[in-house]
Amino acid sequence: MYIFDAHAHIFPEKIASKASDNIGAFYDLPMSFDGSISSLLEMCDRDGISKCLVHSVATKKEQVQSINSFIYESVKQYPDRFVGFCSLHPDMSCNEADEELTKAITLGFRGVKLHPDFQKFNIDDKHAFELYEVIDNRLPILFHSGDKRYGYSSPERLASAVRHFPKQRIIAAHMGGYTEWKKAALCLADFDTVYVDTSSTTAFIPENEFAEYIRIYTPERVLFGTDYPMWSAKDEIEYINRIELSERDREKIFYKNICEFLGVEI
Q: In this structure, what are the phi and psi dihedrals at residue 51, rounded to the nearest 5 degrees?
C-alpha cells in the first residue's frame, strides 16, 4: 500500500545526530535514527514509505530563515519524496512573519510547523494569536500538542485557539495531545478543521483504545506519522495494520487523507 508519512523531522547532516540526541533527551526516550535525510530515505525505502512531510522547528526567531532554506533545498533535491512545512516563531513581528510566510508559499511550502513546548509559548496566548492572524489559513498549521510536563500545548489550550480561529486548518500531532489522548479527544474531536496524526502514540496506547480514538475523530481526520527520527516506521506500520479497519479506512489513514489535506498527488 502507498504510505505517506505525515510527520518527519530532518536536520542538516553536520548537526543531525546532535539534534536527534537533544530530542531524545527532551522526551527521555531513545532515538531510532540520527535525524539525517540519508537515514530517513533508507528507512522509507526499507519499510515502504513513498513520501514524507518534512519539517524542523526554530527555537529562536533568528533560526527561521536558515531552517526554511534547509527544508526548501531538501524538498527541491527530493521532490518526489518530500513535502515541506516551513517554520515560524511567535517572537517574529507581524511584518517579519508575513514576509517569511509569503516567501514560503511562493517556494511551495505546504504548511507551517509550530512547537509550543520547544518554542516556549502558550498555544492560546494573545501574542501567538497575532501569528495565527498573519497565517490566516493561507497554510495549515501542524502543532506539536500535549505533554503532561508542560502546559504550553495542552488540548484545552489548542481547543481555545481553534475557537478563536475556526477556519484555520490544523494538524494536532500525537493524536491531539502527547500523553493526554483521552483529554484531547474530548477537547478536539468536534472541530472538523482539526486533524490528528499517529506519531509518537502507538508505543503507549493499547490497540483497542487506539481504535476508539480513530472512531471518535473519524478515519477521515487521522494521518499516519512516524515522528522520525524517534520511531521505526516498520513498527508503526505494523501497529496500524493490526487495528481493525476497513481497507478503505486504512488507505485514508496511510495516505489519502494527507494527500487531500495538502492538495498533493501520489
A: -145, 150
Determine the Cα–Cα distance for residues 234 and 217; give it in Å rounded to an integer: 24
Residue for grid cell 495565527: 132
Residue 50 is placed in which grid cell?
513513498
C-alpha separations of 128 from 120, 209, 227 in Å: 11, 33, 24
Determine whether 166 is exposed, middle or buried from the number of CB atoms within 10 Å of its CB (0-12, 13-18, 19+): exposed
Q: What percent of the chain has pLDDT over 70?
A: 100
* Cα(91)–Cα(220) distance, integer angstroms: 34
**Count of CB atoms situated within 10 Å of the CB of 79:** 11
Angle of helix 37-47 versus helix 233-242 axis, rounded to 10? 40
- Cβ atoms 47, 93 nearer than 8 A: no
Q: Which cell is 69 given?
A: 532554506
Q: Cα separation of 128 and 32, whole Å?
A: 33
Give the strand pairing for 194-197 and 111-114. unpaired
pLDDT in tens, 46-103: 999 999 999 999 999 999 999 999 999 999 999 999 999 999 999 999 999 999 999 9
**Spans of the chain below 50 pLDDT:** none
Report the alpha-carbon angle 227-132-97, nearest 5: 90
The one-letter code for the residue type at 91 is D
CA-to-CA distance for 6 and 162, rounded, in angstroms?
21
Please name the amino acid found at residue 201: T
State the cell numbers at 78. 527530493
**Cis preceding-peptide flag for 12 (omega within 30 of 0):** no
pTM above threshold 0.90:
yes
Rounded-to-integer distance, Cα 189 and Cα 183, Å: 10
